[in-house]
Amino acid sequence: MEKLALGPQDLLAENKRLIYARLTGFGQEGIYSKRAGHDINYVALSGLLSMLGWESDKRPSPPLNLIADFAGGSVLCALGIMMALAERTRSGQGQVVDCSMVAGSAYLASWIFRGQGSQLWSNPRAKNFLDGGAFFYDTYETKDGKWMAVGALEPQFYSQLINGLGLDEEQVPQICSAEDGERFRKLFAQIFKSKTRAEWCEVFDGRDACVTPILSLEEAALNQHNIDNKTFSKNADGAFSPNPAPILSRTPAKTNFHKCNPGCGDDTEQILLNDLGYSKTDVERFEDLGAIMRNKL
């Protein structure tokens, strides 16, 4: 943008209240700053990818592109813009919001970095409480080839889990040696394979045991709990998409999922005319200069 004289310093000189957001993969400085990359590269450089995977002696597993592209990138960038807008109400000054997906991913993992050496994160990948190392915080296959998620970390939830599985807590204590933990994991796996996922849902529906079904995308949209919370919307073609979150009490966001996705330039003229106050002459001049693309109203 600096090559076009549209960098932050150029524009802030014109408008001191401007909030200028920059979202990059590797950040503004360093040997990677000019290189291309994708979510997996940003998460790798953040250190977080080394923590992802099912076994400590196998290769790290690439996650869905949610960590850097979305959580550490766009969401933190949007949060930074809101922070800058809030600060501007006090100072009257704009500023640059510089968001790197590497830095954002690392920041998301702050508690993992700070927790190194603690009881939660003292072991290799897949050997800690929250990454598959605990038999009471794991996933288990059911009789029909589906899966249940178990997250019974606290003692009161563990007791409910053991009760639902028909076991004796004195025989299967939560606090145990690593060897016993692996033995109990095999026992849990064997028991979960004895019933279908639907049957296990019936068992645990009345128990606060932190046990839930693992749903596919299609199943999630049709799940009664999600229907009750209006988590998804369905369009005319029968496809589902999540509704905006979080929900604001006075000014909740509305989904446009029922509409077709806009084409490139479909909304340009409307935004420039109605939202930003430019004239039709201005819009035509922008188009002649190649500054915008629009589908004419």
- The total of beta strands comes to 7
Q: How does the overall form come out from the CA principal axes?
A: elongated
The biggest beta sheet is recorded as: 3 strands, antiparallel
Relevant CATH superfamily of the largest domain: Crotonobetainyl-coa:carnitine coa-transferase, domain 1
Mean pLDDT metric: 93
- How much strand? 5-15%
Please compute the radius of gyration using only Cα atoms.
25 Å
Q: Low-confidence parts, pLDDT < 50 over ≥5 residues?
A: none
Mind telling me the CATH class of the largest domain? Alpha Beta
Task: Indicate the CATH architecture of the largest domain.
Answer: 3-Layer(aba) Sandwich
Order of helices and strands: HEHHEHHHEEHHHEHHEEHH
Please state how the strands of the largest beta sheet are arranged side by side: 3-4-5
Write a structural description.
The protein has 297 residues and is α+β, with helices and mostly antiparallel strands. The protein folds into three domains: 2-115, Crotonobetainyl-coa:carnitine coa-transferase, domain 1 (Rossmann fold, 3-Layer(aba) Sandwich); 137-214, formyl-coa transferase, domain 3, CATH 3.30.1540.10; 260-296, no CATH class. Helices cover 40% and strands 10% of the residues. The protein is built from 13 helices and seven strands. The protein has helices spanning 8-14, 39-46, 67-91, 101-108, 110-114, 129-133, 155-164, 178-192, 197-205, 217-222, 224-228, 268-275, 280-288, and strands spanning 19-24, 95-100, 137-141, 147-151, 211-213, 232-234, 240-242. A hairpin with a 5-residue loop joins strand 6 (232-234) and strand 7. The protein is elongated and about 80 Å long. The relative contact order is 0.07. The mean pLDDT is 93. This is Alpha-methylacyl-CoA racemase. It comes from Laodelphax striatellus.
